[in-house]
Amino acid sequence: MAIPEAFLEELNERVDLMDVASDYTTLQKQGNRYWGCCPFHSEKTPSFTVTPEKQVYYCFGCHKGGHLVNFVMEAEGVGFVDAVGILAQRAGMPMPEDEGHPEEAKKRERLLSLNKAAARYFHANLTGPQGQRGQDYFARRGLSKRTITNFGLGYSLPQEDGWDRLIQAMTEQGYTKLELLEAGLAVQSKKGGVYDRFRGRVMFPIIDLRGNVIGFGGRVLDDSTPKYLNSPDTVIYNKSKNLFALNLAKKSKAGYLILTEGYMDTIALHQGGFDCAVASLGTSLTESHARLLAKYTKEVVISYDGDQAGINAAQRAIGLLNKTGVNVRVLRVTGAKDPDEFIKKYGHNAFQRLIDGAAGQVSYRIGQIQQKYDLTDDNQKVQYLQEAADLLARLSSPVEREIYGGQAAEAAGIDKAAMHAEVERQRSRLGWKQKKQADRKALTPAAENQPTERQFRYRNVRSAMAEEGVIRLLLLEPDLLAQAEALGQEEFSSEVLGKVFGILQSRWEEGKTTPIEVLSSLLDNREMSHIATITQKPESLQNGAAALEDYIRIIQTEHMKDGIADDRDLLAVSSRKRTEDAP
After folding, report:
1. 493 with 464: CB under 8 angstroms?
2. pTM for the complete prediction?
3. DSSP letters along 349-390, please?
4. Once rounded to an integer, what is the mean pLDDT over residues 75-90?
């Protein structure tokens, strides 16, 4: 959907980035910037900045930056149009009609409307006489009518009742078979026929943070496979970027989120009084899931199955969550196969005590290491201690190293001082490796000037530094573009900087300025983050014209050098070819 520039400019005037960012983090003024802990990754020392006069943000930790719309895209995990919609609602501005590409916006609205209608259809099936099998299943699982209603659970009729019952119901409401295919509710056979994706399953609607039904999960009621069937990714649904029940759990006052393996585990916990449970959607936890969790909590309690698959999944989840900075604990359910059964047998308070006593992720991981070895065997005991020491050596807190090192030493029956010495030896080894890597990086010419994103790495650093200066000056003072007429986009060594210069130049030739909010609509988030990085560097307009002239001279000189080098390469190839062809 193309958003008119005038609309974006008015939105920028009505909504202040400081106000929006303050909803996600506490900001304090230092100099001409406001600083706070980054809302996109967890940290203890503030590295997130907002520059009010430029209306841009930048994090020196995760290197994300941009304009108002980019901030909402990152914070809410939505696309450009949806981010503009959120800001427009905040400003009380109706979204403009899209005259250029109305089909994209209409398709999203139609698919969301279709999913909502399908959810109502499945729920009506469940609560009607034809849904007795689904009712029996949920009754066996102990779900109340209130829980069924709160989660909008449903039932898809079995194939003996027809292969296209949903299709018929939805087409009667005005939806097309193509829309059903695009929503993932229908499947096309090799012969060209179209039939329902979900048949004979209890249905779990997947609801996003704004209350939209974006997909479904379905569970069989017999031994057929697959046991769970989920909606495919569509234009409105991405299983790697959404979590089941987060729309409910984000309102919890518990102070933590419980991460489970499936829909039923999560629903059972909610019914048991734990409204902070969520689950990943038919896939293992991803980096996107971990970042999403970190936006809504500082602590995650992992409640996975105790079998090997569950242990492996928990270990992987710990690694991903650690990167976001959230505190991780791992729940051990004893006396029952899962939390649902435990709550039914022992009650809410007993399960709360389990959560309160859940092991921290370090204790859990050391315990998992211990289970791999027979500590009555000296060789295996040494292997256990070395692996545990490697884990502990990576902890930044000396208190944690001391406490957990003592626990590991006690389990192996050795002196705590010996374990401490082994941890410090491993830590020294890791420090030496890190120093070697840092030294290698320092020896790389102008390494500190290279962008953090590998896709934007500079092949000619001297030229790129001047190119950055050109972009900064032109964003600060667009009238300087008249002086930059002699400079061509093709002379830029950096593709992304050349792209931005080309945008600024072509719009100036059309008599248009390019405020930052318009530029953000023409670049993707990574490109905009890179431009935000550039704008954070100091640049004075006091001698802007002279500075621009110097920058242009450097760019053109370096471009000429690169051209001469290319010509030499071509001459060398041509010379070799003539030699090879000589009789």
Report:
1. yes
2. 0.61
3. HHHHHHHHTPEEHHHHHHHHHHHTS-TTSHHHHHHHHHHHHH
4. 83
